Amino acid sequence: MCLNDAGVMVECWYAELQNKFPNVQCHEMVVMPNHFHCVVEIVDGGAEKGEHAGSPLPHTLSLLGTVVQWFKTMTTNEYIRGVKNSGWQPFDGKLWQRNYYENIIRNEISYQRIANYIDNNPVNWEKDRLK
């Protein structure tokens, strides 16, 4: 998958998440023509006293929402600058969909399955395009 300038911009803002949010580590990611996949790890988010092991903490999910909101804001603002200054294709309405889909990774097997899905997404896209 060869990224255009907008795709490279999205990659750069994804890498910036770790600088903005010290409790975030960025892992696999892929920018596709019409969507984006990534694995974001919230570190130091272990269960607090009284929490059930394996259950996400409310503040962890809140942090994820904040991270996604910041990422969407930064990429949208830069995309608008690209439209104005570099001739990028304008978009109607919103650049990103309103919500996002999260999947809590609870073990290594789940992580490997999701990482493989992300890594293979461009190959699968090419297969779908050729049908």
* First and last CA, distance: 17 Å
Number of extended strands: 2
The amount of beta strand, in percent, is 5-15%
Secondary structure: helix percent: 40-55%
Strand order across the largest sheet: 1-2
Low-confidence stretches: 46-52
Strand count, sense and barrel status of the largest sheet are: 2 strands, antiparallel
Q: Write the H/E string, N to C.
A: HEEHH
Q: How many separate helices?
A: 3
Overall mean pLDDT score? Answer: 87
Protein structure class: mainly alpha
For the CA atoms, what is the radius of gyration? 17 Å
The coarse silhouette is globular
What's the layout of helices and strands?
Layout: H1 5-20, E1 24-31, E2 36-42, H2 58-86, H3 108-129
Antiparallel strand pairs: 1-2
Helix pairs in contact: 1-2
Structure write-up:
Strand 1 (24-31) and strand 2 (36-42) form a beta hairpin. The radius of gyration is 17 Å and the shape is globular. The chain is built from three helices and two strands. The protein has a two-stranded antiparallel ribbon. Helix 1 (5-20) runs antiparallel to helix 2 (58-86). The model is unreliable at 46-52 (pLDDT under 50). The chain has helices at 5-20, 58-86, 108-129; strands at 24-31, 36-42. With 131 residues, the chain is mostly helical.
